[in-house]
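Q&A log
Question type: sequence-to-structure
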Amino acid sequence: MRQSFKLIMICIIVSLLGGCHTAVTEPKKALPALPEQANWTNSSPIDASSHHEMIQVAPSKHTRQSPQAEGDKKLKFTLHAEKKQQQLQEANRSQLKKRQKLQQSNRHTNHQSGQQTKQNRHTHKEHRKQLHAQTMTKERKLSLPELRIRYPDIFKMRGSASEKKVALTFDDVPDNTVTPVVLDILKEMNVKATFFLVGYRAKAHPELVKRIVAEGHTLGNHTYSHPLLTKAEMPKFINQLKDTEDIIEALAGYKPRFFRPPFGEITEEQLKWAGDHGYIVVNWDVDSNDWRGISTKAVEDNVMSTVSSGSIVLQHAGGNGKREYLQNTIHALPSIIKQLRAQDYHFVTLPELLHDQQQKREQ
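Response status: OK
Response body:
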């Protein structure tokens, strides 16, 4: 097969040179028949001229292009490369912007996180201070002067010193022995005062409660049964105030704004509750100590030696029901009123002294 192919190629070359026409006209003598497997050739004699034409018509793949075509091709390649380079640069710039934006966001987040952490630390610190203060308060109860300083708007012990006024106050009323006599003295001397009522006694003597109101005096709440409130739980404390309040409202037509704890003792929690529910807690800065059974002269001295402008004077006009009890108050009261008037003091009720109202403010 290889020999046949070589003969064909030789004939083609000779034909091209013009000297192989005789050999081609006799194909059987010049060229042996090709095997049947070589089906890519014709069974007829090969026409050398047609092969020549085929070779000229089908140019080689490696045919050299013109300089202009090569220049255009290089230009296209250059433009394509530049475009790819620009796209790559744009992609890099976009990635850089995203990275910068992410870094900025992370810095902002870290800053906020730092601020939040700082705020949380401050809040935690304040919370620990409050817990410590509460713990210390529970361990050491505040004294009455400390309570007055901490809660000046709801815990009063005296009025303003700018005016020469005095408020006489009477606790543990009413009873049938002392209260009517004290009312007679005040009426005769034209003095208005404030009476702190014990609930169960007011309930037992409604006519005296109505007389106190009718004669222009002010009523205050002194609990229902006169317990020591510092030993009372909150539910008992609340009931002591509310039960007395209901009795006074039924007899006098209003809920009293002023509340005086028995013995002047009250806890911080109770004080805050009273303030939150419309009360003003009132103690005193002048104590007559009349309830101790001391002499009339001692009662007078206790008052006159400590009284000043804005003072709230503590006395009693009710008690154990014994006739001799509080006789010192009954005998000392006219003298005290005369001496204070001689010093140009004016007698007023608590609403006047504290520039407030006698009726409780509902919250």
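Response note: Strands lie at 155-156, 165-173, 194-197, 218-221, 258-259, 280-282, 286-287, 312-316, 346-347.
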